[in-house]
Amino acid sequence: MKRTVLTITLTLAAGVLTSGYSADTFKLSDLKNYHKEFVSESIGACSTSSTKTYEDYRAITNTGSKQWQIIHNEMTVDPTTGFLVDEDGFIGVAMGYSFGEIGSRYYVELDTGIIIPVIKVDAKAATDASNGCSANADASVIEFVIDSDIAYAYFGGGNGLANNGNFNNYDALNGSIVDIERVSEERIEDSIVYDEEVSEDILKADEAGDNITLVKDGF
What we know:
Blueprint: E1 3-11, E2 38-42, E3 53-56, H1 66-74, E4 76-77, E5 84-85, E6 91-95, E7 105-110, E8 115-123, E9 143-146, H2 148-155, E10 177-187, E11 191-199, H3 200-210, E12 213-216
Parallel strand pairs: 3-9, 6-8
Antiparallel strand pairs: 1-11, 1-12, 2-10, 4-5, 6-9, 7-8, 7-10
Protein backbone atom coordinates (compact mmCIF):
# COMPACT_ATOMS: atom_id res chain seq x y z
CA MET A 1 0.00 0.00 0.00
CA LYS A 2 1.38 3.40 -0.96
CA ARG A 3 2.32 5.62 1.97
CA THR A 4 3.09 9.30 1.96
CA VAL A 5 3.61 12.09 4.48
CA LEU A 6 0.62 14.38 4.60
CA THR A 7 -0.19 17.50 6.55
CA ILE A 8 -3.60 17.01 8.09
CA THR A 9 -5.70 19.99 9.06
CA LEU A 10 -8.64 19.25 11.29
CA THR A 11 -11.18 22.02 11.58
CA LEU A 12 -13.50 21.06 14.37
CA ALA A 13 -17.03 22.25 14.90
CA ALA A 14 -17.52 24.34 18.02
CA GLY A 15 -17.95 22.11 21.04
CA VAL A 16 -16.15 19.07 19.58
CA LEU A 17 -12.64 19.77 20.87
CA THR A 18 -13.96 21.43 23.99
CA SER A 19 -17.33 20.94 25.64
CA GLY A 20 -17.88 23.94 27.81
CA TYR A 21 -21.16 25.76 27.87
CA SER A 22 -22.68 29.20 28.01
CA ALA A 23 -25.32 30.71 30.25
CA ASP A 24 -27.90 29.80 27.60
CA THR A 25 -26.92 26.12 27.50
CA PHE A 26 -25.96 25.67 31.16
CA LYS A 27 -26.85 22.33 32.73
CA LEU A 28 -25.24 21.51 36.06
CA SER A 29 -25.49 17.81 35.29
CA ASP A 30 -23.17 18.34 32.27
CA LEU A 31 -20.19 19.02 34.55
CA LYS A 32 -19.28 15.33 34.37
CA ASN A 33 -18.48 15.85 30.68
CA TYR A 34 -16.98 19.33 30.95
CA HIS A 35 -13.66 20.08 29.23
CA LYS A 36 -11.64 23.26 29.58
CA GLU A 37 -12.28 26.01 27.04
CA PHE A 38 -9.61 28.46 28.17
CA VAL A 39 -5.86 28.35 28.64
CA SER A 40 -5.12 27.85 32.34
CA GLU A 41 -2.23 27.46 34.77
CA SER A 42 -2.11 25.34 37.91
CA ILE A 43 -1.74 27.18 41.20
CA GLY A 44 -2.07 24.00 43.25
CA ALA A 45 -4.66 22.94 45.77
CA CYS A 46 -4.44 25.01 48.94
CA SER A 47 -6.95 22.58 50.47
CA THR A 48 -8.31 19.18 49.44
CA SER A 49 -11.67 19.73 51.11
CA SER A 50 -14.76 18.20 49.52
CA THR A 51 -17.17 20.54 51.34
CA LYS A 52 -19.07 22.91 49.04
CA THR A 53 -21.38 25.31 50.86
CA TYR A 54 -23.55 28.14 49.54
CA GLU A 55 -24.87 31.62 50.17
CA ASP A 56 -27.81 33.50 48.69
CA TYR A 57 -26.80 36.24 46.25
CA ARG A 58 -29.64 38.45 47.54
CA ALA A 59 -27.75 38.83 50.83
CA ILE A 60 -25.25 41.03 48.95
CA THR A 61 -26.99 44.39 49.08
CA ASN A 62 -24.25 47.01 48.71
CA THR A 63 -24.95 48.27 45.19
CA GLY A 64 -21.58 50.01 45.03
CA SER A 65 -19.58 46.88 45.71
CA LYS A 66 -17.73 44.87 43.04
CA GLN A 67 -19.66 41.83 44.21
CA TRP A 68 -23.06 43.40 43.58
CA GLN A 69 -21.95 44.84 40.24
CA ILE A 70 -20.65 41.57 38.81
CA ILE A 71 -23.61 39.55 40.08
CA HIS A 72 -26.22 41.90 38.64
CA ASN A 73 -24.41 42.91 35.45
CA GLU A 74 -22.52 39.80 34.37
CA MET A 75 -24.22 36.79 35.93
CA THR A 76 -27.42 34.95 35.04
CA VAL A 77 -29.54 33.02 37.54
CA ASP A 78 -30.12 29.54 36.15
CA PRO A 79 -33.90 29.05 36.42
CA THR A 80 -33.55 25.31 37.06
CA THR A 81 -30.88 25.11 39.78
CA GLY A 82 -30.60 28.68 41.08
CA PHE A 83 -26.85 28.74 40.37
CA LEU A 84 -25.32 31.92 38.97
CA VAL A 85 -23.37 31.59 35.71
CA ASP A 86 -21.51 34.05 33.48
CA GLU A 87 -21.63 34.16 29.68
CA ASP A 88 -19.12 31.29 29.39
CA GLY A 89 -20.88 29.08 31.93
CA PHE A 90 -18.49 29.75 34.82
CA ILE A 91 -20.33 29.30 38.12
CA GLY A 92 -20.42 32.12 40.68
CA VAL A 93 -18.72 31.35 44.01
CA ALA A 94 -17.27 33.06 47.06
CA MET A 95 -13.54 32.42 47.63
CA GLY A 96 -10.83 33.56 50.03
CA TYR A 97 -8.42 36.45 49.56
CA SER A 98 -5.68 34.22 48.10
CA PHE A 99 -7.77 33.87 44.95
CA GLY A 100 -7.40 37.47 43.91
CA GLU A 101 -9.91 40.01 42.72
CA ILE A 102 -13.62 39.70 42.12
CA GLY A 103 -14.05 38.38 38.58
CA SER A 104 -11.08 35.98 38.72
CA ARG A 105 -11.87 32.63 37.11
CA TYR A 106 -10.60 29.16 37.98
CA TYR A 107 -10.93 25.50 37.11
CA VAL A 108 -11.41 23.44 40.27
CA GLU A 109 -10.41 19.84 39.58
CA LEU A 110 -11.78 17.04 41.76
CA ASP A 111 -10.49 13.55 42.45
CA THR A 112 -13.59 12.19 40.72
CA GLY A 113 -12.38 13.68 37.42
CA ILE A 114 -14.96 16.47 37.50
CA ILE A 115 -13.84 19.99 36.56
CA ILE A 116 -15.86 22.87 38.00
CA PRO A 117 -15.41 26.19 36.16
CA VAL A 118 -15.88 28.96 38.74
CA ILE A 119 -15.75 32.74 38.87
CA LYS A 120 -15.15 34.64 42.11
CA VAL A 121 -18.18 36.87 42.61
CA ASP A 122 -17.88 37.26 46.38
CA ALA A 123 -15.01 37.26 48.86
CA LYS A 124 -14.90 35.18 52.01
CA ALA A 125 -14.08 37.51 54.89
CA ALA A 126 -10.52 37.16 56.19
CA THR A 127 -11.94 36.52 59.65
CA ASP A 128 -13.91 33.57 58.24
CA ALA A 129 -11.14 32.17 56.01
CA SER A 130 -8.03 33.33 57.83
CA ASN A 131 -5.61 31.41 55.60
CA GLY A 132 -7.08 33.00 52.49
CA CYS A 133 -8.14 29.62 51.18
CA SER A 134 -10.64 27.60 53.20
CA ALA A 135 -13.33 28.57 55.68
CA ASN A 136 -12.37 28.22 59.32
CA ALA A 137 -15.73 26.70 60.24
CA ASP A 138 -16.23 24.04 57.56
CA ALA A 139 -13.01 23.94 55.45
CA SER A 140 -14.89 24.84 52.25
CA VAL A 141 -12.82 26.44 49.50
CA ILE A 142 -15.70 27.32 47.20
CA GLU A 143 -19.04 28.62 48.42
CA PHE A 144 -21.64 28.73 45.65
CA VAL A 145 -23.54 32.00 45.29
CA ILE A 146 -27.10 31.05 44.39
CA ASP A 147 -30.79 31.77 44.56
CA SER A 148 -31.53 29.48 47.49
CA ASP A 149 -35.29 29.37 46.83
CA ILE A 150 -34.83 27.95 43.34
CA ALA A 151 -32.06 25.65 44.55
CA TYR A 152 -34.14 24.23 47.38
CA ALA A 153 -37.05 23.57 45.03
CA TYR A 154 -34.69 21.66 42.71
CA PHE A 155 -32.33 19.85 45.10
CA GLY A 156 -34.49 19.58 48.18
CA GLY A 157 -33.02 18.98 51.63
CA GLY A 158 -34.02 17.43 54.92
CA ASN A 159 -32.74 20.20 57.17
CA GLY A 160 -34.20 23.26 55.46
CA LEU A 161 -31.07 23.83 53.35
CA ALA A 162 -30.64 23.08 49.65
CA ASN A 163 -28.89 19.71 49.34
CA ASN A 164 -28.62 19.73 53.14
CA GLY A 165 -26.20 22.66 52.93
CA ASN A 166 -23.38 20.85 51.13
CA PHE A 167 -23.32 20.54 47.33
CA ASN A 168 -20.78 17.76 47.61
CA ASN A 169 -23.94 15.70 48.05
CA TYR A 170 -24.79 16.38 44.40
CA ASP A 171 -23.37 13.80 42.01
CA ALA A 172 -21.98 16.25 39.42
CA LEU A 173 -20.18 18.29 42.12
CA ASN A 174 -18.92 15.41 44.24
CA GLY A 175 -15.25 15.00 45.04
CA SER A 176 -12.24 16.37 46.89
CA ILE A 177 -10.06 19.08 45.33
CA VAL A 178 -6.84 17.88 43.73
CA ASP A 179 -5.86 21.02 41.80
CA ILE A 180 -6.96 24.57 41.06
CA GLU A 181 -6.02 26.32 37.83
CA ARG A 182 -6.11 30.06 37.16
CA VAL A 183 -8.01 30.69 33.92
CA SER A 184 -6.79 33.21 31.36
CA GLU A 185 -8.84 35.06 28.76
CA GLU A 186 -7.22 33.09 25.93
CA ARG A 187 -9.39 30.38 24.44
CA ILE A 188 -8.02 26.98 23.56
CA GLU A 189 -7.82 26.74 19.77
CA ASP A 190 -10.58 24.88 17.97
CA SER A 191 -8.25 23.49 15.31
CA ILE A 192 -5.26 21.15 15.21
CA VAL A 193 -2.53 21.01 12.59
CA TYR A 194 0.04 18.20 12.59
CA ASP A 195 2.19 16.03 10.28
CA GLU A 196 1.89 12.27 10.34
CA GLU A 197 2.93 9.39 8.09
CA VAL A 198 -0.30 7.56 7.36
CA SER A 199 -1.97 5.62 4.62
CA GLU A 200 -3.22 7.97 1.91
CA ASP A 201 -6.04 5.57 1.04
CA ILE A 202 -7.21 5.48 4.66
CA LEU A 203 -7.10 9.25 4.94
CA LYS A 204 -9.10 9.69 1.75
CA ALA A 205 -11.76 7.43 3.21
CA ASP A 206 -11.72 9.44 6.43
CA GLU A 207 -11.98 12.68 4.47
CA ALA A 208 -15.10 11.48 2.73
CA GLY A 209 -16.70 10.26 5.93
CA ASP A 210 -15.59 12.86 8.46
CA ASN A 211 -15.12 16.03 6.42
CA ILE A 212 -11.35 16.14 7.10
CA THR A 213 -9.34 18.35 4.75
CA LEU A 214 -6.07 16.82 3.50
CA VAL A 215 -3.30 19.21 2.52
CA LYS A 216 -0.23 17.62 0.90
CA ASP A 217 3.25 18.97 1.63
CA GLY A 218 1.84 21.72 3.82
CA PHE A 219 0.11 23.58 0.97
